[in-house]
Amino acid sequence: MLLLLLLMSADPQWNCADPAAQQEMNYCAHQDYLKADTALNAQWKKTAAVMQERDTDRNLVDDGRPGHFASLLEAQRSWLKFRDAHCQIEGYLFRGGSMEPLIVSTCKAKLTQVRTEQLEFLIEQ
Fold this sequence. Notes:
Blueprint: H1 2-9, H2 22-55, H3 68-91, H4 100-124
């Protein structure tokens, strides 16, 4: 796994439009995950700001429950743990093999894209 991380950080000239070798597939899948994570972080900022704004709404009744932002933060922290553990399990199908990083990165990218859509939905309501 350390070797894979070193290879990924070297920024080789991989062909992600049509990856052929396993290392190239692993690298490209990781890049897809990083793009999804960047989009998630951008959406998080927007959604968090809206939730914080909702918390300042004067018409809210103090019922002793956490506010919008606190609930969002708790959900996000739980979701991150879920995503990482779930994708680790998916990767175990190829545990220790050269395909494991591809499966994990693909899973993380997919779940991260879905979570980004969920965060968008929260502010579109």
